[in-house]
Specification:
mainly alpha
Length: about 150
């Protein structure tokens, strides 16, 4: 009899069966994403602009959510969706005021985190392009949206 605890959740390939051509696999898989996000949250922990947006005293749960989301986005296991459903990034961030100051602080911590994983320039650029676009997409204050658009 197969041990169900040893099987991946339905719809999720085992980690050793992630296609090697995914960006997730190309940049080193889970260890790279865990290092990236841990470094990002080291900056968030002491940031006076962003830290108040995290109601939990422990940033561990937020770290895990972001890690799972990024791994899934880039072709890794779909654990994020299995645990939390569709990402709905704008909806999940809607309760927080995200303007230019918050976006720029987020990008500063993320830039440092991306640099910390020491990816080849083309891979770092691919990752950064997505992260930068995502940060701009999260801006939800009217003044900042209008100034970004024109």
């Amino acid at each position: 009899m197969v041990n169900p605890a040893a099987e991946p959740p339905k719809g999720q390939p085992p980690a050793d069966q992630i296609p090697p051509e995914t960006f997730f696999a190309l940049i080193g898989g889970e260890p790279t994403f865990r290092k990236l996000v841990a470094e990002f949250y080291r900056g968030i922990a002491a940031d006076p602009v962003l830290r108040p947006m995290y109601p939990e005293a422990d940033l561990g749960p937020a770290t895990e959510r972001m890690t799972l989301f990024l791994m899934q986005y880039w072709g890794g296991p779909n654990t994020y969706s299995q645990e939390r459903g569709h990402p709905r990034l704008r909806m999940r961030h809607a309760p927080f005021r995200i303007g230019a100051a918050e976006r720029d602080a987020w990008l500063g911590h993320m830039r440092r985190a991306v640099d910390s994983v020491e990816l080849p320039p083309d891979q770092a650029a691919t990752l950064w392009d997505y992260l930068e676009r995502a940060a701009y997409f999260m801006v939800n204050t009217m003044d900042d949206i209008q100034s970004a658009n024109g």
